Amino acid sequence: AHTPSTAPAASATTPGPAPELFTWEFASDPYPAYAWLREHAPVHRTRLPSGVEAWLVTRYADARQALADPRLSKNPAHHAEPAHAKGKTGIPGERKAELMTHLLNIDPPDHTRLRRLVSKAFTPRRVAEFAPRVQELADGLIDGFAGTGSADLIHEFAFPLPIYAICDLLGVPREDQDDFRDWAGMMIRHGGGPRGGVARSVKKMRGYLADLIHRKRADPGDDLISGLIRASDHGEHLTENEAAAMAFILLFAGFETTVNLIGNGTYALLTHPGQRTRLQDSLAAGETGLLETGVEELLRYDGPVELATWRYATRPLTLGGQDIAPGEPVLVVLAAADRDPARFTDPDTLDLSRRDSQHLGYGHGIHYCLGAPLARLEGQTALATLLTRLPDLSLAADPAELRWRGGLIMRGLRTLPVSFTPVP
Ligand code: HEM
């Protein structure tokens, strides 16, 4: 007979029903569902909210393998469901084929060529030289609300900082940057749907960038767009379309991700007071070590990119014991892999001093984030400046009431209300 006294042992080996994915509850805390999948269905076929079927990969070892597996293509033309692949550029609201040739949609040898060319212009040195400007941006934005004692940190800080930073880096003149802020705002508010406003914003941005590339070709400066036009490798250059697609992907890959690094990171600090105090103390002592390991840990603990961008099997393969057929899409769940207890000690604990954090928050393999040095600079500057200038910063909402965006690829808050002692 089945008695309650034997139930605990039985339930420890019998998984309950698979958790429901992509609900509102899931969007606010997907980690319990990911823990279930990692344990019971590590390579799991699911139907996405769009109706498309895809494999979700949730264990660290499988995720790392999949991210670097040449049998998994980034080219949407390999998707077996042609309706899905048609015109898909990965850019919200964008259906135009000209922008198809960006890094996250192509494989070697094209990817190798384009990545080598962009790396000649988007160098670690360019990023390092940009540090004073990022500091100036962070301070200027905080000046805007420091006297009031309250703010929505998403709209007043996390959102504008990366858009102004990337505009400056690309060489968009300051007087035009508020247009970019508006266009980007439209896209982040309304997500990737084909709604009119988003499509119009993308069209305006595309037109503006094409025009800017023409102008920079005639009158180059020391900005990144001029660098992209100038970059050559064995006599090869980027075509005008490739330069436009590159400017676009830098903008799209570098914008919402960084908003969410600052937003999720600040939220994690405000809800882990012990860790936050340690960081504040170390900053007050003029140290940067904990800030550096801390930003990596925040990326591992609750990173901006929940699922890596799409991959499609080009040949039959077996991943985590599961057979995957050519044409089937594979989504690597970075947020699940980075909480895998087989890889990280106490994975659900935030530990800013964690040193072995080879997290997958920036991906892995040939598509590893090109903008990681810039993202680190922005994340470290933003968090250090906030905690230093507004030392008693606190959350002004019940965490249960905060709303998460619930997009497929990105994880981030809609708003982050805070309060603090006003600083004149
Ligand atoms: C690729 C994360 C910021 C530019 C990626 C990938 C991830 C990622 C996970 C790989 C996607 C995949 O393999 O499917 C992040 C995070 C960021 C961030 C978490 C912020 C915290 C930036 C910034 C830029 C940027 C600031 C540039 C301005 C790119 C580009 C790629 C990429 C161009 C494509 C690289 C390739 O395919 O070769 N990023 N990113 N990212 N990221 Fe980032």
From TrEMBL:
<comment type="similarity">
    <text>Belongs to the cytochrome P450 family.</text>
</comment>
<dbReference type="InterPro" id="IPR002397">
    <property type="entry name" value="Cyt_P450_B"/>
</dbReference>
<feature type="compositionally biased region" description="Low complexity">
    <location>
        <begin position="3"/>
        <end position="15"/>
    </location>
</feature>
<feature type="region of interest" description="Disordered">
    <location>
        <begin position="1"/>
        <end position="16"/>
    </location>
</feature>
<feature type="region of interest" description="Disordered">
    <location>
        <begin position="73"/>
        <end position="92"/>
    </location>
</feature>
<dbReference type="InterPro" id="IPR036396">
    <property type="entry name" value="Cyt_P450_sf"/>
</dbReference>
<dbReference type="Pfam" id="PF00067">
    <property type="entry name" value="p450"/>
</dbReference>
<dbReference type="InterPro" id="IPR001128">
    <property type="entry name" value="Cyt_P450"/>
</dbReference>
<protein>
    <submittedName>
        <fullName>Cytochrome P450</fullName>
    </submittedName>
</protein>
